[in-house]
Amino acid sequence: MSDLAREIERLLPPEDRLLDPADCWAYGADNSRLHAAPEAVAFARDSQTVVELVRLCRRLGAPLVARGRGTGTTGAAVPDRGGLVLSLERMNRIVDVDPANRWLIAEPGVTNAEIQAAAGEHGFFWPPDPTSAAYCTLGGNLAYNSAGPHAVKYGTPRDNTLGLEAVAGTGEHFRTGVRTTKGVVGYDLTRLLIGSEGTLGIITQATLKLTPRPECTRLLQAVYPTIDAAARAVARLMARAESPSALEFMDRSAIGMIRGYGGVELPEAAGAILMIESDGPAEIIETRIDGIRRTAAEGALSVDVADTPEAMDRLWQVRKALSPALRTIAPKKINEDVVVPVSRIPALIGGLEELAERHAIRIVNFGHAGNGNIHVNLLVNPDDPEEMHRAEVCLDEAFRLVLSLDGSLSGEHGVGLVKRPFVDRELDPAALTLMEGVRAVFDPDGILNPGKAPPAP
After folding, report:
1. Of 268, 279, 208, 271, whose CA–CA distance to 244 is shortest?
2. Angle, alpha carbons 149-71-419 (nearest 5°)
3. Residue 176 is inside which H or E element, if any?
4. Which phi and psi angles does 284 have, rounded to 5°?
């Protein structure tokens, strides 16, 4: 037994630790399908336990990787250097809901869906809504700055979090932010911690900013003959005074994949589809949706409006059919998320189509068109070495394409292990040097999720 395992055995009761390698195995992976076995797994139930575990790992020089439920896709929760996996799934209390001040305080192990349900009882919601909301945890949402379809109108976790409690790599417990809608005292450590993937501190509590639920929601499905026509519609829609509450996109490859799947019928001429959602007060929703319909109709093959929950479900069936279709056809696909300025979506998709043809790799693109966040899926067979080599070259060129279009290599999936080798293409040496200095202050011994922070310049 290692020194770390012996100390964990002494510190925690049996129900709050795993030391047998077979028991620890499951906590060595996330949804990236990467895996590395930890030496031990600890389950914290309160912030004081987190403090003690961080101090223990610092004393032993042992890596510490915080983990929610492992829904991340970039390997950020994979303990590739061994050490301790600190699971926060049992820190799952909703501490307070204050409708008068529009906040909700929760621990990191609470699921996104549980937060929505608690807020919903008071007529509110928390805008970040990843597709894994039923299972993913608040801590993971904050660690990755994971958003979802409604970020186009309501923003990401950085825009919807008032303050945090966390434990730094020094073992010090600290608080950031405010419980007011305004506050400029000190540096904004809240936004710095969000998206840092557990490399600066372990979040133990968050104060979330709640938003009133809209009275009404309407959904449109617009079908276009080309990517260019759809992208022009996106630009027009985003120029309206009232932003759509969701604006989803699927390219020709995605449409071809789901045509006929689960009863979904789409025209053969469809080159792109937009799913456009709008919400607001009941007295103006019809006027608003009519304006959106007219804006979307220019250059469209068809625009269908859903004004009942049943009709909305039928339209969303097209988007919902995509994930199961992808899992059926390519269960081991490479899933990347990139971002480009909205006006450059056509250039991105056109470039990806050219790469797919040149490298003989099927690529399916869909995502959040309103903020240019596109999920790029390379449908590959990992058991075919030659195809995987072509896919790696294709992905490398895809990232170069994104950066040439003034884009970013990740919109909401994070960096983790998968994208770390590419980070210095987007960030210059001066920025990387400053980030390295910031991390040294929070985690001077480099124990928090080592190997996942931005690389040294």
Report:
1. 279
2. 85
3. strand 173-177
4. -120, -5
**Angle at 328 (CA atoms; ends 327, 331), nearest 5 degrees:** 45
Please state, in angstroms and rounded to a whole number, the distance separating the CA atoms of residues 346 and 228. 6
What is the full DSSP assignment across 78-129?
--TT-SEEEE-TT---EEEEETTTTEEEE-TTSBHHHHHHHHHTTTEE-S--
Q: DSSP E strands: which ranges in 210-355?
A: 211-212, 216-224, 246-251, 272-280, 302-306, 334-339
| End-to-end Cα spacing for the chain | 37
Whole-number Å distance between alpha carbons of 129 and 112: 7
Residues 6+ apart with CB under 8 A from 406: 340, 341, 344
Print pLDDT tens along the chain (457 aa). 799 999 999 999 999 999 999 999 999 999 988 999 999 999 999 999 999 999 999 999 999 999 999 999 999 999 999 999 999 999 999 999 999 999 999 999 999 999 999 999 999 999 999 988 999 999 999 999 999 899 999 999 999 999 999 999 999 999 999 998 889 999 999 999 999 999 999 999 999 999 999 999 999 999 999 999 999 999 999 999 888 999 999 999 899 888 766 566 778 889 999 999 999 999 999 999 999 999 999 999 999 999 788 888 888 877 877 877 787 777 788 889 999 999 899 999 999 999 999 999 999 999 999 999 999 999 998 889 999 999 999 999 999 999 999 999 999 999 999 999 999 999 999 999 999 999 999 999 999 999 998 888 8
Angle among Cα 232, 236, 241 to the nearest 5 degrees reads 165
Burial code of 157-171, b = ≥16 C-beta within 10 A, e = fewer? bbebbbbbbbbbbbb
How many Cα atoms occupy the beta-carbon half-sphere of 208 within 13 Å? 30
Distance, CA of 320 to CA of 357 (rounded, Å): 27
Map tokens 């995605």 to a residue. Answer: 254
The residues pairing with 164 across neighbouring beta strands, listed in sequence order, are 176, 206
Name the phi and psi angles at 357, rounded to 5. -70, -45
Give dist(CA 371, CA 374) in Å, integer: 9
- HSE-up of residue 359 (Cα within 13 Å, Cβ side): 25
Q: How many helices (H) and strands (E) does the chain have?
A: 16, 18
Q: How far apart are CA 249 and CA 276, in angstroms?
A: 9
pTM given for the model:
0.94
Residues 6+ apart with CB under 8 A from 114: 92, 94
